[in-house]
Structure prediction request, 337 residues.
Amino acid sequence: MGALALVTGLILAAIPVPIYLGLALLLDRFEPEPLTLLVLTFLWGAGAASGIALIVNSTGQAIVSQTFGSEVGDLYGTSVSAPVVEESAKAIALLAIYKWRRTELDGILDGIVYASMVGLGFAFTENVLYYSRALAEGQDVLAGTFFARGILSPFAHPLFTSLTGIGFAVAARSKGSGARGLFVALGLLGAIVLHAVWNSSASAASGAGFLGVYALIMVPTFVVVLVIALVARMREGRAVRERLGPEVANGVLGPADLEALSSLRARRRAVRANAGQARKARKELYRSAVDLAFLRRQLERLPARLRPRAAEQEVALSQRVWKLSWEAAGRLPPSPH
Prediction:
């Protein structure tokens, strides 16, 4: 792979990333995820998951080709190994969040966002390789490859892995280890099956099969996942109102604050109505109040081993909301006695 091919691959692979990154972050504006986790999940997809997939897929396909012939090897690599290995490798990042940062999985929307970051990273690295190889075969091959991967289906890997993310997110809110394991398995299985169907159609000799799968399966699935994300975001507003009762009862938050917390548009209006330090404090107040509401929702279903730490976080967040409410009103909080 020459320097020109590599640079060309990097440039073309980077084109759709800001678009789908922006879409994921736009959906996540109600309760933004930590930037560190978003970066780490993207890097996992672009680095570790891609590396694992490249090694395991190449090795497995070579073994099958030597044993059963190149045609069987190609079929195995495309329709069996790639979907299973790639989706499993991407799922490791989601498993890590589920195991050690479960309080960040507040709902289905979070699962979709983290999964999309992993998928975007994986697609970026994979596209660099595809575009670089295509350029070596000619500009016409590169143009066709970019049209198929960069124009028609840049959302493919984020979409596959979103099904796994939904599975982990539902599991995080479920009771019983059996149910949690089932939801994770179903999410991962859905990602693998969708990936296998897509790969099989893309490698088929008939272009009609590819277009049929694209129009009848991929696009509708993308729309369904997008609708699920939008509905989940609306439900987040209701969850905030339901779980900030103690702050309302104590006068820390008022009716206008609840309205602002349950609507992105109302929140922007409320923040802009302030100036200077009060505006900054109100912005932080609303962000912390949303975090507090979601943490309380998490506490309802967290396993016993995770509850002590989450309970400490709840106390700290509650105190922060109290302090910020005074600052947002332009007053200093009273000194503790």
